[in-house]
Please model this.
Amino acid sequence: MLQIGNIVISSRCLLAPLAGVSDLPFRLISREHGCEFAYTEMISGRSLVYDSRKTLQMLITSEKDTPLGLQLLGAEPEVLAEATVIAASVKNVRLIDFNAACPVSKVVGKGEGAALMKDPPLFSRILGAIVKNTALPVTVKLRAGWDDSSVNAPDLARRAMDAGVSSVTIHGRTRTQGYQGSVDYAVIRQAKEAISIPLIGSGDALSPALIKQMFDETGCDGVAIARGALGNPWIFHEADLFLREGILPERPSREEVQKVLLKHLEIQCFYFGETRAVVMFRKLFSWYVKSLPNIRKLRERAFRAISKQEMTDLISELTATWIH
Ligand SMILES: Cc1cc2nc3c(=O)[nH]c(=O)nc-3n(C[C@H](O)[C@H](O)[C@H](O)COP(=O)(O)O)c2cc1C
Model:
């Protein structure tokens, strides 16, 4: 069980925020496979306040997409305060998360994302402004620090708690590391020890065994699954079972992969319209099939598919004898 503010979920694994990925269809498929709590992709507070059409599209949600955490990105307390009020009014949103973790140059160049780890007073002011403007629980996502010489996640976790935040997520790599190198479990453990609110661990949660390792090494209360869920919604049930009973279920059969691909495509087309959905689906197809043998040609064809029928035909080929 995991409790964040007034949100109680039975699974201790969450779907991490994933820009360009954790949209409504992705969240719905994850939820069908045991994910109880999911985050939206990061959403710019500025775009939200100025209502860009694209921003509102990121906010599409549906009846089954709950409880949902909306992640805000930005560096201006006043704008984020306003964005919080809008975010909290979005259907199904039960929690506001703040991104102080994004390493992308375009983002940190504006003083946003992980750049805020270099400015603890501003970090605290932003969280204070968000907390003050909503009755929903507020959470924050950090990295271990900016670089090796400034690992300050435990200090910032404490600041976040003092600002009234309900849980802290830490990706155990520095901004400089990007996605390279190993995850620093020790810094996550230190942060856990520095706060009395739940801590969610993030980084290399790629398999049930690695997820268990995150819990064991850090004492964290929950784990955010990110790259491990790409083309692999089964990871949620698998991790839960492994954590509860030490059992590793069999990997999904080829027919199961095919079934879920078809459903994902269907939902994607329903929400985004066929043309856009199929283009977006190319990378999803590639993720779902990446561990299958003899798949290179099929993947290449998927990257050229332009219609739902074409994509459906490629999915049917997954059970063809030549890729067994
Ligand atoms: C494609 C992609 C998009 C991401 N987008 C976000 C985002 O919008 N907000 C965020 O806080 N983290 C984002 N992350 C970071 C993940 O949530 C997670 O912390 C990171 O991938 C480490 O976990 P992993 O090693 O298990 O993948 C993203 C990661 C990836 C791979």
